[in-house]
Design brief:
CATH topology of the largest domain: hpI Integrase, Chain A
Distance between the termini: 65 Å
Largest sheet: 2 strands, antiparallel
Keywords: Cell cycle, Cell division, Chromosome partition, Cytoplasm, DNA integration, DNA recombination, DNA-binding
Number of domains: 2
CATH superfamily of the largest domain: Intergrase catalytic core
CATH architecture of the largest domain: Orthogonal Bundle
Protein name: Tyrosine recombinase XerD
Subcellular location: Cytoplasm
InterPro entries: CB, DNA_brk_join_enz, Integrase-like_cat_sf, Integrase_catalytic, Integrase_recombinase_N, Integrase_SAM-like_N, Recomb_XerD, Tyrosine_recombinase_XerC/XerD
CATH class of the largest domain: Mainly Alpha
Strand content: under 5%
Subunit structure: Forms a cyclic heterotetrameric complex composed of two molecules of XerC and two molecules of XerD.
C-alpha cells in the first residue's frame, strides 16, 4: 500500500470511530476490505488519491474471479464508496470515482432459524447444575429470549440486570443503547448463573463483565460461545451446522413474528436502525397471514 494511502485509510477509520461510533468488528471489516483494495490498486501503480473508476471495477472483477459472493462484493463496494466520499469531503480528491459504479446484484437470503421444538431441545440439554451448565443456560436464554447480537451478549457489563428490572439496557451498533424486555424464565436463568459467576472470574478477581473470562478481552469470546453452542447442539441431537448465536437471534425474531408480534416492535428489540432490515423476517409473517386466511376466511 502507498504510504499516503495508508494515512488516508487510517484517517477514514478514525472518522468512523469518533464521528459515527463504529463498533470494533465493523472497523476491522472496513480495514480488511479497504486494505485489500489499496494493495490491489498499488499493484496497478496507482494510489487512493489517483485511482479511477476503472481501478475500482477491476478490483470488483478480481473479487468475482476469486469466487467471492456477490454480497461480499457489494460490501466491499460500499466500503470503497464511503472511503472516496470521505476523501472528497476532506479535499484530498476533487472527484469521486465510485459514484456511478453499480453494486453487484446480491440476492437476499432468508435467515436460518431453528424451530421452537429445536430450541426447547437446546434449552433442555443446557439445563444442569454445574457452573458451566448454568452459564450456558443463561447465555442461551439471553440469545433466544432477548434476541441479542453475540457481540452485545458477551460484552454485557456486570450487573446487567437487577432483581426488580424488567428491561435490559443493551449497547448495540453505533454505540446506541436500547431497552430489551426480559422474561421471568430468563431472569431465573441469570439468577442461577450469578450464584456461580465467581468461578469464571480470573484468579478470583472482580470483573466488570457479566460473563468474565481469563482471555485477553476479559470476557467470553464470540468464538468460544459459538463452540459451546455447537457442542450443545450435538448433545441435543441437532446438526451443529444449524446452530450459532446469530441463528438463535433469528429464531427469536421469527418465533415472535409467528406468534403475533409486529415489525415495528421487533425492529426496536433487535436494534435495527432501518425497518427494511427487519422486513427480511416477513417470510414468517406471510406464512402466518396465509394460514389465517385459509383457516378463517368464509371461502377457504
Amino acid at each position: 500500500m502507498f504510504d499516503m494511502s495508508a494515512r488516508y485509510l487510517e484517517g477514514f477509520l478514525e472518522m468512523l470511530l469518533t464521528e459515527r461510533g463504529a463498533a470494533t468488528n465493523t472497523l476491522a471489516g472496513y480495514r480488511r476490505d479497504l486494505t485489500d483494495f489499496a494493495d490491489f490498486i498499488a499493484r496497478r501503480g496507482v494510489s487512493l488519491k489517483t485511482a479511477s473508476a476503472a481501478d475500482i471495477q477491476a478490483f470488483l472483477k478480481f473479487s468475482d474471479d476469486i469466487g467471492l459472493k456477490s454480497s461480499t462484493q457489494a460490501r466491499r463496494l460500499s466500503a470503497i464508496r464511503q472511503l472516496f466520499s470521505y476523501l472528497l469531503g476532506e479535499d484530498i480528491r476533487r472527484d469521486d470515482p465510485a459514484l456511478n459504479i453499480d453494486s453487484p446484484r446480491a440476492g437476499r437470503r432468508l435467515p436460518k432459524y431453528l424451530s421452537e421444538e429445536e430450541v426447547d431441545r437446546l434449552l433442555a440439554a443446557a439445563d444442569g447444575e454445574t457452573p458451566e451448565k448454568k452459564r450456558l443456560f443463561s447465555l442461551l436464554h439471553l440469545l433466544y429470549a432477548a434476541g441479542l447480537r453475540v457481540s452485545e451478549l458477551v460484552s454485557l457489563p456486570f450487573p446487567a440486570l437487577r432483581d426488580q428490572d424488567r428491561f435490559l439496557i443493551v449497547r448495540g451498533k453505533g454505540n446506541k443503547e436500547r431497552l430489551v424486555p426480559v422474561n421471568q424464565a430468563c431472569k431465573q436463568a441469570l439468577a442461577a448463573y450469578l450464584e456461580v459467576r465467581e468461578n469464571f472470574c480470573p484468579d478470583g478477581r472482580h470483573s466488570k463483565w457479566l460473563f468474565p473470562s481469563r482471555g485477553g478481552q476479559g470476557f467470553l469470546t464470540r468464538q468460544r460461545l459459538g463452540q459451546l453452542l455447537k457442542d450443545l447442539a450435538i448433545e441435543a441431537n441437532i446438526d451443529p451446522a444449524k446452530v450459532s448465536p446469530h441463528v438463535l437471534r433469528h429464531a427469536f425474531a421469527s418465533h415472535l413474528l409467528a406468534n403475533g408480534a409486529d415489525l415495528r416492535s421487533l425492529q426496536k428489540m433487535l436494534g435495527h436502525a432501518d425497518i427494511s432490515t427487519t422486513q427480511i423476517y416477513t417470510h414468517v409473517l406471510q406464512k402466518r397471514l396465509m394460514d389465517i386466511v385459509s383457516t378463517h376466511h368464509p371461502l377457504a
